[in-house]
Design goal:
This protein has 178 residues and is mainly β. It has two helices and 13 strands, in the order ααβββββββββββββ. The strands form two sheets. Strands 2, 4, 6, 7, 9, 10, 11 and 13 form an eight-stranded mixed sheet that branches. The protein is globular, with a radius of gyration of 21 Å.
């Protein structure tokens, strides 16, 4: 009995003595609102995930466009700048944020370093709120080095009446090719 009591005391000491510091170790997630705020990205926001990718030259990597904490969103125009001397856009696919009984309206246009993604909700309610994936971009690395990917201030979120929703934060990403 004495040994069992000491064993329990030792276990309690270990559990009480351990600290889990989750605030200094943010989750690797585009939905980490606290982590985004530390980076100056306040919702509603547009961000990229992963925000830092490593590849070899001529390899491809997916980077997703996320909208964070938006209300009554009906459409988005994400204007994304990238270094076309180092990266090539292979494909852009719609995310699942605007999925409903109908697929969203989804069009993109790639112009040597400026990628325009237009997507709009086509569900019967004509709007959606929350956070989610708007699109996934497949980049191919053409040259070694780090390439920054960021949103232009021309990016826009709109409600069902085509009234702009103020974007308070823009995340950015990078692709490092060796």
């Amino acid at each position: 009995l004495h040994w069992t009591k000491n064993k329990y005391l030792l276990l309690m000491f270990i559990f009480i003595g351990c600290q889990l510091d989750t605030h200094n170790n943010p989750y690797d997630s585009p939905f980490d609102v606290d982590g985004n705020k530390k980076l100056g990205i306040f919702p509603p926001a547009l961000t990229l995930y992963p925000n830092d990718a490593k590849v070899n030259v001529q390899e491809s990597v997916d980077m997703s466009v996320y909208v964070i904490e938006v209300n009554d969103l009906s459409g988005a125009n994400a204007v994304i700048n990238y270094d076309f001397t180092k990266l090539k856009v292979l494909d852009v696919k719609p995310g699942d944020f605007f999925k409903s009984s109908q697929d969203p309206l989804f069009v993109y246009e790639d112009n040597e370093g400026i990628l325009n993604i237009f997507t709009s909700y086509l569900g019967s309610e004509r709007k959606v709120s929350g956070s989610g994936n708007l699109a996934t971009i497949t980049f191919e690395s053409k040259a070694s080095g780090t390439s920054t990917i960021n949103f232009s201030d021309d990016s826009e979120l709109v409600d069902k009446d085509d009234i702009p929703i103020t974007i308070k934060g823009f995340g950015k990403g990078s692709i490092n090719a060796k």
